[in-house]
Amino acid sequence: MADAHLTYTLDIAPDSSWVAATPSAVTRSVFLYVQEAGNFIAGPNYDTRRSGLDSYLLHLTLEGGGRLEYEGRGYRLLPGDLFWIDCQRPQYYCTDPDTGRWHGLWVHCAGPVACAFYGEFRALSPDSCRVTLNAGASVGSLLEQLIDCCAPGRPDPAREVRAAGLLTQAMTQAMESLLGDRCGEGVPEAVALARGYLFEHYAQRITLEDLSRRYAMNKYYFQKLFKRYVGATPNEYLILTRINRAKELLRTTSLTVSEIAHRVGMENPSHFINLFKRHEGITPQLYRLRWRE
Known about the structure:
The protein is α+β, with helices and mostly antiparallel strands. It is 44% helix and 23% strand. Strand 6 (66-70) and strand 7 (73-77) form a beta hairpin.
């Protein structure tokens, strides 16, 4: 872990707020938790340069504008833009000189699952740490409630649990906004058709080459496009579809595991058992014993 480094110019209005939280040992070991949070109305000289901090930062621009430099990229931050970064990595952010004012809500957070949440966010957006929130997103309200939750006072386990829930909702909405038009009408026709084809013909042998020829695309481009809108490669989606169907058969029939493997398109029962165990953590037979009743 790198040594923490921080330099900043704190040019903020008097009506800005800034709270620090010291969660209990139980909260640190189990939940997402807030380290600091704030509602900053920043002037033209506000800036922060940092690295090596064991924290994740979510920052939502409400008014004015900001600038961010992170992972070799520069971002202009407009109202409705949220950035989410790992503060171990070098970052620099400041008030946009073109606006001279930057009003935003922010939270530094950590916790056992913070890395996993951030990893999923960046898996959805590998080229950018910024997302423009959906019109219906309530991340601003969630961050305001987080600041209230962390207001000074005696330790309160209920507030820490509530803060963990608010953080989870804010992170989830950021990821939903990233998906944006990847759902419904925004899905390319070839992806929608391929997803339906895999769902209907999961018991057949289907390769990436088969699909790319079927929809007249380069196979590598097709796989990238499919994963962008579905969240899994065609093969991953096919495997999950087969496993879901196998679960139904394990719970509702007396077919043997080998017979079920063949029913869902897996010619090698041992390979099916290994795949099932990899995804579920238990064998198909144990799944049947636990769930069939």
